[in-house]
Amino acid sequence: MLNFNSYNFKDKRVLVRVDFNVPLNEHHHITDDTRIQMALPTLQKILSDGASLIIMTHIGRPKGEVVADLSVKHIAAHLSRSLGRTVKVAPDCVGNEVKTMAETLEPQEVLLLENLRFHKEETKGDEEFAKQLSELGDVFVLDAFGAVHRAHASISVIAKFFQEKMFGLLVEKELFYIDRALKKPEAPFTAIIGGAKVSTKIDIILNLLDKVDNMIVAGGIAYTIIKAQGGKVGNSLVEDDYLDVALKIVEKAKEKNVNLVLPTDSIGADKFDNEANIQLFNGDIDDGWMGLDIGIKSANNFSQVIESSKTILWNGPIGVFEFRNFSFGTLKVALSVAAATRKGAYSLVGGGDSVAAIHAFNLESDVSYISTAGGALLEYIEGKPLPGIVAIRGEE
Predict the structure, then answer these.
(1) Hey, what domains does the chain have and what are their CATH numbers?
(2) Is 342 in the active site?
């Protein structure tokens, strides 16, 4: 497999798949350009080598229709400022006019292709569409880690049309740091899994039980497990269809000698609202009340486990983090992960809410790595082969 850093892109037309699916406000202004900033080192290296650069991305979910609000035209000026050079915008991502624009690019010039998802063939993984895209460049660079779990035309199918293909710096970095936690963990290895539903995290939990020493489970997932074991959880969020699966998690933890850590006390509310009445429950939760956060005993127990760990993986909030009155558990865990990291532990944080918590509490510099990916990270943790990764590595 080709190495991005050692490859010389001079005089090449380089086709790069990035993830510039950035949020836009009603005025089409970018409200968070993190995804653009993360891709800049890859783009700058290609340009500094003396190559012409052709950028592919999607924005939103136009479902194969041309949606003006989701045009890449809205991000072109910001990208031009970020790269320090004019970015040309193609009228489409395929077709004769686009091909001519790509072929006539001078070294160090940049062409931004129109939203890939304006074509339904993109998400269908259409081979002919992928072939048309491939004809725009000599080299293919995949640097959209947030989309590598998609078998889309511009992610995995396109790779078969290139002899010279490789990961960009962002994908390389993500894989390095995630693999460090999953494949080379220093014991004790603790996974912290939060969130609302067991159904979305079953495979993650079961796969991690083969790797970890401690498994901390919180949020609605924990209440499903507690109910499955005969505990009373009141009106807390529970997936009754997954009680058998919850018991399977408990049994596998025992079988693998994993310390499964669940909340022992809860901060309950009489409705799903920040301004709800609050009551602390030690153990069972009364009918008419729902657990929206962990209590102080659980928080201290979680902290003790986390701060004695050498490798930490955190995915998902501990309580209803978006409600200030129920953000205590998430804050406590975030501070504990930071404290463990300062003592020498390796910590990987991924997933929207847990990453948001780290940013909200200004702890970015106190954890080892924050993953930019959502679904791709979760599927990688589950042990699933990711189409984009397989397409470049050539692995099954």
Answers:
(1) 13-173 (3.40.50.1260), 185-382 (3.40.50.1260)
(2) no
